[in-house]
Structures are given as C-alpha cells and as structure tokens.
Amino acid sequence: MDALQKLQLLGPAAAFEPAEEVGPLGERATMPNTPDELAGCIAHATLPGGRRVPMLKTLVSSACERDCHYCPFRAGRDFRRATFTPDELADFTAQIYRQGLVNGVFLSSAILGGGPRTQDRIIATAEILRRKYHFQGYLHIKVMPGAERDQISATMQYADRVSVNLEAPNARRLADLAPHKQFSDELLQRLRWIHELRQSLPGRQPSISTQFVVGAVGEPDVEILMTSAYLYRDLKLARTYFSGFEPVSDTPLEHNPPIQLHREHRLYQASFLLRDYGFDVEELPFQPDGNLPLYEDPKLAWANLHLSQAPVELNTAAREMLLRIPGIGPTTADRILRARRQGTLRFLSDLSKLGVSTKRAAPYILLNGRQSPRQLAFWTG
Ligand code: SF4
C-alpha cells in the first residue's frame, strides 16, 4: 500500500475524533484546490484565535491492541487496517503542505506495542515534519494513554495543541466504556503532567484539550460537566470536546442506542458557560435525571429562572452579571463596559450596534431604569 492509499484509509478514520472546529471532510465548495483523492482526508478547521486553515486529520495507525467497547478500531474487529512509518507520513504531509493543500495537521493513533512505543512513533513523525521539512503550520498531537512524562515534554516541543482523550467523566464510567484503560493513572495523570509542564517549561506552550464519548454508557450530563469544570478550572484546558456515541457493528455496545439529538450541542453550550461565563456546575439547569433539558438553551433556562422577575440594569451591572444575560457574550460584555463610560445606554439600538442579540437579551434587561417596549410586548403577549 502506498502513502496515499494509507492516508485514504487513515484520514477518514480520524474523523471520529473532534478537534478544533473542523468542518465536514471534503468541503469542495470552500476548498476547491483539494484533489479528489485527498478530499476525504482534509477539512477546514477554525483554529484558536479564529484563523481557518485546511487541516489534515489522520491516524499514524489504525491497528490497535486495546478493546474499548465502543471503538471501531478495537482489537479483533474485522476491517482493513494500515500503519504509517514516521518517515512515510511526514514525507507525504510535507509534500501536500508545500503544495499549499494543508496548513494544519492533527496526529493521533490507535495503540500498538503499548502507549509509550506508540507515542514514540507520533513524536518521530512530528519531529521530522518540524525539523527536516520545517513545517510551520498548526500541529495538534494526541498523547497516548500511558505515555511517559519525558515523551509528553518532547511532544509539547512540536505541538500547538496536545490532547488526552479521557473518554469518560470518571473511573466508573470508563470501566463500562473501555475496561482496560485506567482513568486516573493512564489518562488524567497525563493531563496533570501537561498542565505542570506548561507552567514549568520556558516559552509559549501548547494548549490542552480532551474528548468525552457521550451517551454510550448511561453517564448523565452532570458527571461530564463536573469533570469538565475541574479540567477548565484546575488544569486550564482550552476545550473539552464531546463525541456523540454512534453504535458500531461488531462491538460490545453495538445494540446501545445512539446519542439523543441536541445532547452534544447542549453540552457544548453548558461547557462554554463553565469556561467563559463564570457559571458553576451547580447553577446549570439539570433535570432530576442529571441531564440538561434537550430543547432549551441552558443559559436561557437559567435566565428564565433568575432574571425574568429581576432584570439587570445594563448601565451599572458588573461584567459577571452582564455575562449571565442571554445574547451577551464576553466580547459584547466588554463593549458594553466601554460604551457606558462614554454615555448612558438608553435604547436597544445602542446595544445592537455593540453586537448584542437584542431579541434574546431584551426580556432580561433594563436600560436606564426602563424595560424596552419589546420586553413589555413579550411579557404581556
Ligand atoms: S485504544 Fe483507542 S483506538 Fe484502541 S480501541 Fe481504545 S479507543 Fe479505540
């Protein structure tokens, strides 16, 4: 099998791992230069900071010795597997980088020969790309379960982002999902090391992310979000990704139902409330079963409970309170703070000019002591 054929197997195989804001593979309308044979391996990714680049997502290998219950690559499952050597993958990636077809790479792998040996192959690939081919693009590198601390430090030298897939929010759920992975020792400890290294190593260090598989083994949203809150607060993760469970044939979970529609989206909304909006997990509007309402935005649900009868005066509210109002985010909260130093905010049109979604915000705000006409219509309608 040549490198292109391997990539055609391993590129789409990496699609199940969320990373950055990656659009669908093969978006031909926005990436007209991508040759047909690579369309299934390259997607547009929005990087931290907002830059959009064509990104190659690939596994170094889809041959795995582990048997995670949900995973298409689990040992013994019958499908066509492939493995790159580090030189082969780096050479091919450098070629398409020089042709301007990619400017970002996501490198992950199934586990073959143990976590440390797998990590060595990933590091070698990144090293060749950076040192031999002077690849200047964005590099997101996965840290394998059981990778050693020195290997993590080496990985971080080459990466813009590193990630460890926790898969489950705690050891009990991981036992149902991937019984031979150890939540604390093999996975969480790696995230702790990355955090420590980020603080101790000189220079700019890569950001950190993780991924949860959602909906496979009955874990409620509250468990996922409690762990997410810890990761954001104590380990300074940039993102927690949620990968909705889809049953895969010939795996132990093949008869479990897929994730409910909207659940992934609500988890993302709630995780941003934890990361960027100052919410605590306890404040989120969980139902008695520990899940978020599927059909209601969690910020809106909180505002309906707490702000409907106590609207917020935008001319005096602290930033933390502005962030609680639907339609106002961190950027628009800062604009409001700047604008009101110049004069009193009186009209919804003042807010529209600042980028506030006035339709969402109006029921929960006062402008110079007055509710907007839109609010009155809303309340009396
Ligand atoms: S270790 Fe990774 S690739 Fe292997 S079975 Fe588990 S989740 Fe799949």
Can you tag this structure with a few keywords?
single chain; 381 residues; alpha/beta; Transcription Regulator spoIIAA; 8-stranded mixed sheet; two-stranded parallel sheet; globular; disordered C terminus; binds iron/sulfur cluster
Short description:
This protein has 381 residues and is of the alpha/beta class. The protein has helices at residues 3-13, 86-98, 115-132, 149-158, 171-177, 183-200, 221-234, 263-276, 298-306, 319-322, 330-342, 348-353, 358-361, 373-380, and strands at residues 21-22, 42-46, 52-59, 104-108, 138-142, 161-163, 207-214, 239-244, 312-313, 365-366.
Structure overview:
The protein is built from 14 helices and ten strands. The protein is about 40% helix and about 10% strand. The longest helix has 18 residues, at about 115-130. Strand 4 (about 105-110), helix 3 (about 115-130) and strand 5 form a beta-alpha-beta unit. The protein is globular, with a radius of gyration of 23 Å. The chain has helices at about 5-15, 85-100, 115-130, 150-160, 170-175, 185-200, 220-235, 265-275, 300-305, 320, 330-340, 350-355, 360, 375-380, and strands at about 20, 40-45, 50-60, 105-110, 140, 160-165, 205-215, 240-245, 310-315, 365. By secondary structure, the protein is α/β, with parallel strands linked by helices. The protein has three domains: about 1-165, Transcription Regulator spoIIAA, CATH 3.30.750; about 170-295, Transcription Regulator spoIIAA; about 305-380, no CATH class. Helix 4 packs across helix 6. It binds iron/sulfur cluster. Iron/sulfur cluster binds near residues 64, 73 and 111.
